[in-house]
């Protein structure tokens, strides 16, 4: 059973072909980093225009790389949200057109659900498990009981972790995207040199990174000569400490020893290393997707879309994207 996945939720145009929800036949991603870098962040209108230009070439390449034709596709899975509404519209409209013109069933996928199912492209986590989706737009904890059964346990109250990375990188003059740059330069700094705050929010599994971002800004203003390597390493340590503590604490609270990490920030080398160490200490079975499956991609959308298809959860031409779409809600 072959699923064509399409994702245009943010600034990457991606299409993939996945067999039976687990085997990747192709996974093509067209990055827009070069377009947005000079602005220090994503410009939504430019992202939408680039999606329009790239959507068909990317889908065509995904089919060719998988050595199949459109007639071989069992269903088309498209991201319906959350994300940038203009970007989402491109993928949804293209997916509906392709579905209608070729009489191929259409399913829609919540982008956050896709991130969780990235793990199933390389492993089979036993149910239930704890899932952390941590990226530029999201930092959320879920208890996953089964396909379509998600309970949110915590979420960011302000900035997402990846958003904080990008803003601190811009503040330090590193440009966009900030996550990979800070991850790299932090290895050359002293992570204990600056005691940046950790917002643990006692009594809650929610996250907050806005105060940390402000603390970095104030520190840089007062200490302009401090090595950027030390600032980066100390900032990153503050983010990672909270992420790891929250994940392991919620696993203990829920009495579940299986954890799935996903989203672009889960590609961070220091975060992966500390989470592996903590998991060994706590007896947690940790599932970490490969780096290319942590960031936005259509293979994860096709993986989740497979389950929508086999359960008969189809969409029609009335499908519309939603910029705000909580996972586990009536629409999500």
Layout: helices, strands, pairs:
Elements: E1 2-7, E2 13-19, E3 23-30, H1 33-36, H2 44-65, E4 75-81, H3 85-102, E5 106-110, H4 111-117, E6 129-134, E7 139-146, E8 149-155, H5 161-171, H6 178-186, H7 210-222, H8 228-254, E9 258-262, H9 269-282, E10 285-287, H10 291-294, H11 298-310
Parallel strand pairs: 1-4, 4-5, 6-9, 9-10
Antiparallel strand pairs: 1-2, 2-3, 6-7, 7-8
Helix pairs in contact: 2-3, 4-11, 5-6, 5-7, 5-8, 6-8, 7-8, 8-9
Which radius of gyration do the C-alpha atoms yield?
A: 20 Å
Percent strand:
15-25%
Low-confidence stretches: none
Number of domains: 2
Number of helices: 11
> CATH architecture of the largest domain, please?
2-Layer Sandwich
Averaged pLDDT, please?
A: 96
The coarse overall form would be globular
CATH topology of the largest domain, by name, is Nucleotidyltransferase, domain 5
Multimerization status = single chain
Distance between the termini: 24 Å
Strands of the widest sheet, in order across it, are 3-2-1-4-5
For the record, what CATH class of the largest domain applies? Alpha Beta
Count the E strands. Answer: 10
Secondary structure category:
alpha/beta
Helix content: 40-55%
The CATH homologous superfamily of the largest domain is called ATPase, nucleotide binding domain
**N to C succession of SSEs:** EEEHHEHEHEEEHHHHEHEHH
> Biggest sheet: strands, sense, closure?
5 strands, mixed
Summarize the structure.
With 332 residues, the protein is an alpha/beta fold.
Explain the overall architecture.
The protein has about 325 residues and is α/β, with parallel strands linked by helices. It folds into two domains: about 1-115 and about 295-310, ATPase, nucleotide binding domain (Nucleotidyltransferase, domain 5); about 125-290, Nucleotidyltransferase, domain 5. The protein is built from eleven helices and ten strands. The chain has a five-stranded mixed beta sheet with strand order 3-2-1-4-5, with helices on both faces. Strands 8-7-6-9-10 form a five-stranded mixed beta sheet, sandwiched between helices. The mean pLDDT is about 95.
């Amino acid at each position: 059973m072959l699923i064509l996945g399409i994702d245009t939720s943010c600034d990457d145009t991606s299409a993939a072909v996945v067999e039976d929800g687990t085997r990747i036949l192709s996974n093509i991603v067209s990055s827009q980093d070069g377009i947005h870098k000079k602005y220090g962040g994503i410009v939504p209108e430019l992202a939408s225009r680039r999606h329009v230009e790239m959507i068909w070439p990317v889908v065509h390449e995904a089919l060719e790389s998988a050595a199949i034709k459109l007639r071989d596709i069992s269903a088309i899975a498209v991201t319906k949200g959350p994300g940038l509404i203009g970007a989402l519209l491109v993928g949804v409209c293209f997916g509906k057109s392709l579905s209608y013109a070729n009489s191929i069933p259409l399913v829609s996928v919540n982008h956050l659900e896709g991130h969780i199912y990235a793990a199933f492209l390389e492993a089979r986590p036993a149910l239930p498990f704890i899932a952390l989706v941590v990226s530029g737009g999201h930092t959320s904890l879920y208890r996953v009981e089964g396909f379509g059964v998600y309970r949110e346990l915590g979420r960011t109250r302000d900035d997402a972790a990846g958003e904080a990375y990008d803003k601190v990188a811009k503040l330090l003059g590193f440009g966009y995207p900030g996550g990979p740059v800070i991850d790299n330069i932090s290895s050359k700094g002293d992570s204990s040199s600056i005691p940046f705050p950790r917002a643990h929010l006692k009594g809650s599994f929610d996250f907050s990174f806005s105060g940390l971002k402000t603390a970095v800004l104030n520190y840089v203003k007062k200490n302009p000569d401090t090595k950027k390597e030390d600032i980066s390493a100390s900032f990153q340590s503050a983010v990672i400490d909270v992420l790891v503590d929250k994940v392991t604490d919620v696993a203990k609270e829920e009495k579940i020893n299986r954890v799935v990490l996903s989203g672009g920030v889960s590609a961070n080398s220091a975060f992966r290393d500390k989470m592996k160490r903590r998991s060994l200490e706590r007896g947690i079975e940790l599932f970490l997707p490969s780096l290319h499956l942590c960031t936005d991609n259509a293979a994860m959308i096709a993986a989740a879309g497979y389950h929508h298809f086999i359960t008969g959860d189809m969409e029609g031409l009335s499908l519309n994207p939603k910029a705000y779409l909580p996972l586990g809600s009536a629409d999500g």
